[in-house]
Amino acid sequence: MNAEAETRAAENETVDVAIVETEAIFDNCSSREDIAALAYSYWEARGFQGGSPEEDWLRAEQEMRSRRRQPED
Predict the structure, then answer these.
(1) pTM score, two decimals?
(2) CB neighbour class for 57 (10 Å; exposed up to 12, middle 13-18, buried from 19)
(3) DSSP string covering 44-70, please?
(4) How many Cβ atoms sit within 10 Å of the Cβ of residue 66?
(5) CA–CA gap between residue 65 and residue 58 (Å, rounded)
(6) Rg of the Cα trace of the chain?
(7) Stretch 22-48: mean pLDDT
(8) Please, which pLDDT band fits residue 5 given cuts at 50, 70 and 90?
């Protein structure tokens, strides 16, 4: 395997681990559908170009976490 393929494999493994770990966090807090909808909205806002689904997913999870931490008025 060349260096680029090894790097890509390591990145994919990191994303997979992050998704599995955050699934447990969001089981009781936010539905996967809510995270998916938010991630999709990021892609939509970019005109359906560029970025990556994994980055959008992780960004959406982070946004949902920050929303959860903010006290409701």
Answers:
(1) 0.56
(2) buried
(3) HHTTS-SS-HHHHHHHHHHHHHHHHHS
(4) 9
(5) 11
(6) 14
(7) 81
(8) confident
